[in-house]
Design brief:
By secondary structure, the chain is an alpha+beta fold. 30% of the residues lie in helices and 26% in strands. It has five helices and seven strands; from the N terminus they run βαααβββαβαββ. The chain has a seven-stranded mixed sheet with strand order 1-2-3-4-5-7-6. Helix 4 links the parallel strand 4 and strand 5. The chain is globular, with a radius of gyration of 15 Å. The two termini are 25 Å apart.
Length: 168
């Protein structure tokens, strides 16, 4: 592995925010493109870091990607219940894809979850079109939980996020 996974530093928040925003935009994951309100959330790494753990993959002083790990609920949790940790906003820079960065970030979250007392599962939400991510999660032992699928914008009928969980 030619990169390390570690806690993001404040001077990396802007870079990680842009990596995350560009990943979602370029992959067509924002229903309203550049005008999508969620784009601001993706860029606001400082807000995430104040409420959860933000991890980065880094090599040679460059951020390659990142993820938000929510250990046990709190303001950053979307679907986590008691005894569950949640993974959010996984993103890898386009030029770093195919190097195992995404998998290493997910593994780091799973390892952290195992160290949280009382944590029995890791959960996450994903979009239907994120097929590469689905394959990664399934290869790592995550199982689909269709009964937990949800819509972050109930006023819009066609936005349903798929959910996965990994029992620790």
């Amino acid at each position: 592995m030619d990169f390390v996974i570690r806690q993001a530093t404040a001077d990396e928040y802007g870079t990680l925010g842009e990596i995350t925003a560009h990943a979602y935009l370029r992959d067509g994951l924002l229903d309203f493109g550049e005008g999508d309100a969620y784009l601001g959330e993706l860029r606001n790494v400082a807000k995430r870091a104040a409420a959860a753990a933000v991890l980065v993959a880094a090599a040679d002083g460059r951020v390659l990607g990142g993820v938000t790990f929510v250990p046990s609920g709190g303001p950053m949790a979307d679907i986590a219940r008691p005894g569950e940790a949640e993974i959010r906003m996984l993103a890898v820079a386009r030029e770093a894809r195919g190097r195992g960065v995404g998998e290493a970030l997910v593994r780091a979250c799973v390892d952290r979850a195992r160290s949280v007392e009382g944590c029995a599962r890791v959960v996450l939400s994903t979009q239907r079109t994120m097929r590469t991510a689905h394959r990664l999660y399934e290869r790592m032992g995550f199982a689909r939980t269709p009964e937990r699928d949800w819509n972050p914008l109930p006023e819009l009928d066609d936005i349903t996020l798929l959910t996965y969980e990994l029992t620790l």
